[in-house]
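Sanity check

After download, print the first record. It should look like this:
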Amino acid sequence: MTTVPALGPDHHRSPTPTAAAVRPGLVLLLASGATFLGMLDATVVNVAFPDLRDSFPGIAISQLSWVITAYAVVFAALLAAAGRLADVLGRQRLFLMSVLGFALTSMAAGAAPGAGWLIAARAVQGATAAGMIPAALGLLLVNTPPAKRAAALGIWGAAGAMAAAVGPSLGGLLVEGLSWRSIFLINVPFGLVICYGVLRRLPADAPSGRQLPDPVGIVSLVLAIGSPVMGLSQGSDWGWTSPEVLGLFAAGLTFGVVVWLRSRSHPAPAIERDLWHSRVFTAANVTSALFGAAMYAWLLAGPLYLASIWHYSVLRSGLGVTPGAFLAALGAVLVGRRVPLKRQWMAVLFGTALFGATCAWMALALHASPSYTAVWLPAGLLGGLAIGCVLTGLTSIGSTAVPPLRFAAGSGVLMTSRQVGGALGVAGMAVILASDGLVSPDGFLTVFVLCATVAVLAAGSSFALRHRS
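Expected structure tokens:
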């Protein structure tokens, strides 16, 4: 079994877990639990959006969408650096600190007195999630025997896929029974339980001795992603040719150049350019970004459509998108356990093509009059199956395209690509719905067409995943 060494005698706990005593099943449980929480908070807010609008009636849709986007932007920008940070500080240490921080920031979001506080808490929460998930995956890969890694990745991917799909239903249940604050506060006890399990059962691995990531590059990366996303989300309100919007796009380009230049010269860059020397890794990131844009826009548009067009309650809207969660988990487990690694590019191609076809069907078949059984349910099932196949296939291919000692860094970059795409997809959806309003199905159908188009592009890029080194 591949294990990680324990730290020296200055680190005492009673009882002290040792590397030899680590059980891969327990590592999988803790890693999957933390990943479930992190990915859940990327989608659980979707169904609470109407309730948030009622709580903050003076906030425009484009501004309120930053409750979702702030989490996604910071999460995306810090994932790559967090992967390296996990290798530098030790995966167990970063994992523990991040889970604890996630629980505390969830408490702050649940207690938010205003929209500004909530958006700020969500941004910090995204930072803690960025440290949590790459460290979880790094722990999983290092502590799992090579012969069982594909199956473990399938279960881990199922946890992420299930969270992304079940978020709206769980959110609807909490919002309907309590309030939108409960969707954040529920993270606190689960986060503390995971922290307890880590302290009691996982040994601290020795830091690699590598240099900490470039702080200037990290801040520049946050601004490079956040500036164009803000420009895109505010364009319809401020005017697409206004100095503010053009300035934000220019700032994003400028900071992107800064990140690229510093990545060439800094010994510990925010984005490790040498990872991109692998053609498979590059293709996995391009596909991940494209699919992330389509997936997150679709996941947010679905509950909003049910609530705004078919006038479902918050709970009913959440339950309406739940069946896809089970197919997402099933697809993830099947790909992880049954599809050989060298053929998982086929699972990605199948999933992206199926997702594109599903979105196109929804754009053509949905109308103002409800048609849940005939259209929505089968579309949700097919979309969920596609999500499970794609996310697991991309994680397996992208993570194993880098050396074992770079697992955390590679997985962080891969998730960064997906979250960047997701932030842009949500911002684009907000622009469409802000111009067409939430009372007409036309805007939502346009969103589904956009999702279908981007998913087809992702299917095209997935062909490059065939060329394995």
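If your output differs, re-run the checksum step. Summary of this record's structure: Confidence is low (pLDDT under 50) at residues 1-16.
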